[in-house]
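Supplementary Methods. Inverse-folding protocol.

Structures were first reduced to a discrete structure-token string of length 272. This string, shown here, constituted the complete conditioning input.
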């Protein structure tokens, strides 16, 4: 770090036990404060031989293990050492990863050999990502729990416009208040949130990003067509997620019918 002048890129490697969300949040906040450093994306490397074992690890109190959290938060997932396992095991690992994170890009490699063009300039946390996100969201499908984990990807599309203030309430109930429950009464824990939304009276599509308790709304360079129906596409990655409940709550926000929104969220009842 003694080098004078500007760096082109900074690759920050955390330990295998670290939560990348906490580290990413620091750079995300710095960017909002006008720092020259901005968060480009989160890359997670998965060992082909031991990946399934780490993803299936159980923690006391039903907590999410570190490996699963790292996969859930990733924008790019690199499966390394693919030459050390049979295709059947590799297929199981792919399925487990995709069941956790239905949005992140997956690369497979040996000896960590990856073209840097696939790792750098991801633009996963700025307005430019809205262009590629629009294409990705067309192919993202909801996933089912794998390896006895409750971590899944949930996605839905809803027509209409949202008032920005009401949208903030919807997101804050999920990320801050943590008072939204699924049909079984279990608290939903959102690890990662991403989507494109239509804000009332805004000509541009807006990208919404969330990591743990932090979230942001940013206009993209893409404008809505005058004659096109405006839609909202959202992707949630987390624990105990319920697509029907989330869509119902979001539609309540869009249609401004507050009665629906209180069905599965109660003030003062924060999830542990």
């Amino acid at each position: 770090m003694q080098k004078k002048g500007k760096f082109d890129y900074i690759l920050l490697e955390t330990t295998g036990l670290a939560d990348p969300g906490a580290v990413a949040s620091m750079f995300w906040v710095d960017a909002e404060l006008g720092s020259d450093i901005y968060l480009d994306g989160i890359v997670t490397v998965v060992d082909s031989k031991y990946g399934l074992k780490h993803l299936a690890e159980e923690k006391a109190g039903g907590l999410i293990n570190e490996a699963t959290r790292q996969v859930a938060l990733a924008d790019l997932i690199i499966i390394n050492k693919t030459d050390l396992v049979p295709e059947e095991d590799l297929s199981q690992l792919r399925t487990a990863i995709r069941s956790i994170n239905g949005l992140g890009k997956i690369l497979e490699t040996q000896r960590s050999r990856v073209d840097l063009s696939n790792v750098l300039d991801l633009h996963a946390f700025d307005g430019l990502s809205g262009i590629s996100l629009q294409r990705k969201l067309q192919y993202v499908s909801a996933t089912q729990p794998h390896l006895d984990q409750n971590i899944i990807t949930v996605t839905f599309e809803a027509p209409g416009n949202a008032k920005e203030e009401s949208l903030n309430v919807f997101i804050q109930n999920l990320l801050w208040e943590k008072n939204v429950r699924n049909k079984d009464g279990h608290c939903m824990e959102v690890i990662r949130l991403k989507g494109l939304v239509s804000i009332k009276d805004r000509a541009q599509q807006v990208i919404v990003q969330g990591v743990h308790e932090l979230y942001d709304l940013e206009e993209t360079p893409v404008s809505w067509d005058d004659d096109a129906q405006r839609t909202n596409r959202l992707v949630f990655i987390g624990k105990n997620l319920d697509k029907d409940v989330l869509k119902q709550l979001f539609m309540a926000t869009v249609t401004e019918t507050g009665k629906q929104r209180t069905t599965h969220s109660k003030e003062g009842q924060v999830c542990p």
